[in-house]
Write a structure and sequence with these properties.
Elements: H1 2-8, H2 38-45, E1 50-59, E2 67-76, E3 80-87, E4 91-96, E5 99-104, E6 109-111, H3 116-130, H4 133-139, E7 140-147, E8 150-157, H5 160-166, E9 168-174, E10 177-186, E11 189-200, H6 206-212
Length: about 210
Amino acid sequence: MRRLFLILCLSALPLAGFEPLPAPGPIIVPGGGDAAWQPLFVTLAAQGPIWSTFTECRWFLFRKTPVILKGELRFSPTRGLSLHYQEPEVRTIIADEKGLAMRDAGGRTHEVPSDPRVTGPTAALLPIMRFDLRALEERFEVHAARSGPAWRLDFVSRDPVLVRALGTVIVSGEDLSVHQLEFRHSPKERVEIQIGEVRTGVNFTPEEERRFFR
């Protein structure tokens, strides 16, 4: 189940090439210590629906090289997250308020059984996708650091069950753009996501909504 969740855990974020990450920073203090970070969260939250291409690298303990997947990402603040994998095989993963679903190349949708180990982390990730700082502070310890224009946010769930499922979620970027998303269980077991072309404020067509969301 954790492997399935790692497949699903791509953020709907505008990404590009990136500088080396700053070291993990101190915790953002709820209700007071986050003023310096508010402009970043507000700007990212205001981008609206997003479309992007992505390359996903999955590192496992038993492999020396990562498994590489490529596809298109669509995020809607109201409809959720859709990951349309194109390589090495065609399939679509949908994560929204209802839970998780997988859609095959033929368009058949298969609901993922309701399991707290999967649906719980999905619900916890939605505020990250939306950059809702207040909701994030309720569910995560949010560590933040800057080094020049580069910045890094580490999200550690306050729920031990979700910590085991999520690991540490690391979002990094430069200025007002996100560059990389990582789900790290250990240096040798992690999922890294980099995204190429990005469009924000997208108006998805009715056909796209039918095909890539539910």
